[in-house]
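dumping this here so i dont lose it
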């Protein structure tokens, strides 16, 4: 358990662990807290649909979050959001971006197999929900192009 969970900055965030990548939405400054510097490990950007709901105006992605040991493929993690968010990891065998890949073992949706490793797009994040995207496909905080497989 990582308590507190590593977050993009001191703002208010809602986060998920998506197949080994942490994606957060929010970023509103916390009340009564002097803001510290942002964590440089996160890629952040404005959310395309921020005007349509109150989930949050920013999206941040950490493509290489912390794990209990070096064998990332053996861990499945989740974020427990709340006043004191924490990241909880357990041994499991579900698919993640950290599993080796090939034709018989493809990557999770939204990642690409490159040299037997799954790679997520390093583009600027912009979405939280599928409905944020014209293609109706948000993967790892990034809208997939129209017609992508």
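and the seq i came up w/
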């Amino acid at each position: 358990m990582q308590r507190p969970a590593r977050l993009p900055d001191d703002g208010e965030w809602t986060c998920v662990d998506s197949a080994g990548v942490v994606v957060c939405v929010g970023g509103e400054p916390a009340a009564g807290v002097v803001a510290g510097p942002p964590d440089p490990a996160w890629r952040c950007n404005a959310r395309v649909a921020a005007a349509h709901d109150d989930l949050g105006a920013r999206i941040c992605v950490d493509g290489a979050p912390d794990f209990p040991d070096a064998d990332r493929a053996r861990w499945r993690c989740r974020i427990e959001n709340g006043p004191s968010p924490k990241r909880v990891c357990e041994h499991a065998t579900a698919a993640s971006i950290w599993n080796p890949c090939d034709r018989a073992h493809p990557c999770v949706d939204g990642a690409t197999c490159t040299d037997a490793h799954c790679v997520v797009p390093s583009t600027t994040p912009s979405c939280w929900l599928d409905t944020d995207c014209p293609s109706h496909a948000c993967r790892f905080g990034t809208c997939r192009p129209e017609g992508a497989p």
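The beta strands are 12-18, 21-28, 43-46, 58-62, 75-80, 86-91, 112-114, 117-119, 138-139, 142-143.
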